[in-house]
Amino acid sequence: MGVTSMDTKEFNFRKANFPLIYQMILNISSNSVLESTQIDETCNKFYSILNDVFLQTVPYKIKRKRRFSSWYTSNIIDNILRKEKYRNNFKRYGNNLYLARYKSLRKTIKNYIDSTYKNFIQTAENNIVQNPSSFWSFINEKKGISRIPGEMGDGERTYHKPTSIATAFAEYFSSVYDISLNNNSCYVNHSDGHDAICISSIARNQIIIAAKKLSNKLTSGPDEIPIFIVKDCIYVLSDPLTQIFNLIISKATIPKIWRSAKIVSVLKKVDPSVVNNYRPTSILSNFSKLFEIVVYNAIYPVVRNSIKIEQHGFMLMKSCSSNLMLFSQYVSEVLDSTGQVDVIYTDLQKAFDKVAHALLVQKLHNKFGFSDSLTNFFHSCLVDRRYSRLSSYLPLE
Predict the structure, then answer these.
(1) pLDDT by residue (tens digit) across 154-172?
(2) Nearest to 291 by CA among 202, 379, 228
(3) FRET pair for 85, CA 20 to 30 Å: which of 5, 265, 342, 391?
(4) Residue 279: enclosing H or E segment and its boundaries?
């Protein structure tokens, strides 16, 4: 079967030569190019070297639009194609030998499919706690449900082509973002002389510890390097990453390549065919995620005492569930004492899309005591970002 215009070629990291990858990456740390003081130049060279390594150690695979159910093995698919070949030959030549082979293979395939399907179901049931997304993907497949329908609309127009659907998502997501709140392109520091929170340097061991929090999934960002590769190769990647991370800290700026993200549309309301019922979720480069964990581990212990104990969101060992538990306990105690509880629920619509970046950055500096360098670094994380979805590529500044 040839490669069609709908097929894409990508690295098959599952079949990579990992011993050779380790050996070749070990040579990166001694590469003089990584000693550059320009963060974008250094980061681009790092990716260029990694790409050269992958070209020599990782085979390609052709990613085709799926024609068969997810539990079909390559052996089953090959036999199905052979079966169809025998059927076509019988219709063309009328030779009963082709018919006999067709019937024999059809019976064999049926038995294969039955046993494979049972094994697939058993595996899905056993792994439902560890991997619930796989289970729900199977349910949606059985129901014939696509995550993104082939026809979508925004209340005024209807879209049928993948490119037009992607553009509709891009236009809607960008319309939600309020540029007027973030038109201040530079941060002006107002150092007041107090003891500042800063990150002076990042050690190799910090990177190795942070990598343990990464999952072992195949998820990849715009750089197409999956998480499990970063995590599995962290001991040989940690030296060049230490150089890059410390260069980022010293320059107080994030590399341009890490300001790009892939967008996944997440359904928030009932009707999946309406563009406005989705919100965007960013899929970042995994090296960027790793750096984020390192920075978080360094900052959180210092700032957590400055955050009110009533805050449960985005706090370690707290969540919406812990918040609800405390609230339920409070209500129960009041009701037990024949008291009254009046509750007002509020929700800030698309709150994170309406955050004023300049005010946020100044609050980090003035309220939490971030140093000028660290504050400028966080500001660089918020500007000149680019987001892509499917075939549409849209800058959101």
Answers:
(1) 878 888 887 888 888 888 8
(2) 202
(3) 5
(4) strand 278-284
